[in-house]
Amino acid sequence: MLLPILLPIIGILAFLIKKESPGPVFFAHKRIGKNGAIIPTYKFRSMFSDAEERLEKLLKSDEEIKKEWESNFKIKDDPRITKIGYIMRKTSLDELPQIFNVLKGEMNFVGPRPVIQQEIKQYYKEDAEYYFMVKPGITGLWQVSGRSDTDYDFRVATDKWYVMNWSLWLDIVILFKTVKVVLFREGAY
Fold it and tell me: ∠ at Cα 78 (73, 81), nearest 5°?
């Protein structure tokens, strides 16, 4: 039902991404799905095409950035992000293409955030079994409970709690809270 509204937005964002920097409009990142399956999660490209090379240089030249990256897999004021990418990330519009993951049956609207294998090994450890029980989601309890303002232990505990206490009502509450978080750009960077 949302596709007639979302497709024009996707088209406009694709045009703006292409206009600002060369490279593909979409970015598919391999993440872990239900039962440990590898799935390509789709996002709008919000960084320059040579972001990996730029990251390597940053990690070698700046010890503070290296520590931040190793603790969060994110950099707060990441110089690899384009101008339109910054706006998309602040509004979470960079994740809009994950609607195609939902249509393909790889993700749900609500669930734990899709993570990479290294995050499973480093942070989830024995709690990974809970993560593997459900499909990852475009939004989830962690995203409406502080998002990037929280640490990884909180994220893992939140994902585990969500799986153990899942209900349709909980998903509805999370969807409504997501609208608030996106509109007020809480915890995004």
Answer: 110
